[in-house]
Amino acid sequence: MTHRLAIYDMDRTVTFSGTYTGFLIHVSKAMAPWRLVLLPCVILLMLAYVFKLISRQRLKELNQALMIGFNVERAKLMPHVESYAAKVVANNVRAGALEQIARDRADGYRLVLATASYRLYVEPIARRLGFDAVIATDHLSQDLRYVRAKIAGENCYDTGKLRMIKAWMAAEAIDREHAQIRAYSDHVSDAPMLEFADMAFASNPHKPLARLAAAKGWPRVDWL
């Protein structure tokens, strides 16, 4: 049996722009508007990451703690997560990506959204877009009453994303030798995932990925 998988990155591949900062601001406005005064601290943390003073994973944890809180009751948070997902799908999704998703579905591919963004809000977005599975960054308390500003395992990014894709495939009993994989991304950090695929597509790529795609012979697609 051949398993057909179409694996999509999310931010700036399926969407026009990143979703993480928008998520923090959306939830802050809805639950604790006073936290918006902490936005300059978020910028400082981003600078700390640029200068390699903190890891990307720690950056995300600290930003969430600042803008949403260390522990947030899931029941109070989820209505705002759902409203943010609806906002993303309504205003921040590329029509070309939707067309490709529809073609992959028609070709019999299982649709997988693999992203460094948090599963917490990726799953509602994926559900609205018709994806079959989500591979994403998890919170430590993913299935508990409170959402903690702490990542479980690793950030779903770069080689970590590929490890998580392989782990998901193993859990689904999908043997790589019996899988036909298409992969789409805009960013060179997804080179490991693209290398892993049978068919790799540089989707609205930034310059480093465009150069790599040209060298590798990966097709470039520019979705509006």
From TrEMBL:
The keyword Transmembrane helix applies. It comes from the Bacteria. InterPro entries: HAD-like_SerB (IPR050582), HAD-like_sf (IPR036412), HAD_hydro_SerB1 (IPR006385), HAD_sf (IPR023214). Keywords: Hydrolase, Magnesium, Membrane, Metal-binding, Transmembrane, Transmembrane helix. The chain crosses the membrane at residues 32-51. The keyword Transmembrane helix applies. GO terms for molecular function: hydrolase activity. PANTHER family: PHOSPHATASE RV3661-RELATED, PHOSPHOSERINE PHOSPHATASE. This is HAD-IB family hydrolase. It comes from Sphingobium agri.
